[in-house]
Structure formats: structure tokens, C-alpha cells
Specification:
single chain, mainly alpha, Tetracycline Repressor, domain 2, 2 domains, 10 helices, elongated, Homeodomain-like_sf, HTH_TetR, AcrR family transcriptional regulator, HTH-type_Tx_Regulator, DNA-binding
Amino acid sequence: MTTIDAKEQLLQTVIKMMKNTKDINKITNRQIAAEADVNSALINYYFQSKDNLLLEAVNTHMENLYKDIMESISNESNPVTRLKSMLMKFLELGISQYKFVKIPVSEEMKTGGITTNKMIQQTLKEIYKEDKSDFELQILASQILLPLQTIYLHIDEYKNYLDVTLDNTQILHQLVDSIFTNLNINE
């Protein structure tokens, strides 16, 4: 096995293991190495730590899911409808893949949520054209994202606080519609 194959094998193994466990943090270096059929020292060699490997595996997995979302909404011509669809799909992904989503959302929030914010800004620019400055669009994107990111990170608390089941599509639509109404984003 070449070094590139070993690194990729570790990533794919961890993604598979994460899908099959409830608590990602209980996966050990030895389990990963045994499942990937590589020396456990390669985890530190390629990723410096198990946590870095887990983060990269989650990011790889989530990147593929995000690409699928963006592709699925790309044919929608109305930018408001497209943005609502994007947020709905992000919410549905967050609920269905909670153990995966919590990690990159937490990491992204540590850096200000810039990556996802920029994705939303592109669509907001289509909605507002020249009516809002880049600064205003950045703030608006943050106002859209922050409640969703907060809910992702504290899903059980928000289920209780909102007294709803967040895996209900109708409730998710109400949540997105409420954000759009409160921010006065109209079709």
C-alpha cells in the first residue's frame, strides 16, 4: 500500500466507523488502525492526532454532502426559493447527520462561520443586487446562519426550548420562513 493509499484508507475507514457508532469520541487509534489494516503510528504521521483525523474525515464526508445539496438546488432560478431550499437541506442534513454536522459547525463557528456565510452571501447578492453593500450582505448572512448553527450545537436544548420535534419537515419550514420573515427577505 502506498502512502497516499494508507492516508486515504485511514480517512475512509474513519468515515465508515463514524457512521456505525453513536459516539465518535469513543473510537480509538487502535480500532482505526486495525480496521484500516495499517500501523497505528500512521495516524499521527499523517494527521498529528486522532482528533485531526476525525475532523478531516468529518469534513471530507460533509463536503461531499454539501456538494450534493448545492447541485440539487442549482436549477432553481428564483434566488429566494433557492436560498430557502439550501437552508432547508442544511437543516435536514444537520438533523439527520447530527453527529457529523456538530463537529464542522463547531469548528466553523470558532473561525466566525465565514465559509458557509460566503455561500449564503452569493445568493443574497442575487436577491438584493446593488441594493445592499457587501458589508450588509455579510451581516445578513450571519443573521441567517447564527440561529441555525446555534440550534445545531444545542439541538436537545432547542427541542425543549422551542417545544417541537426538529426532525419534522413542517417545523423546519416554519423555522426557515420565520427567519426570512423576521429579516424581511421576500420573494
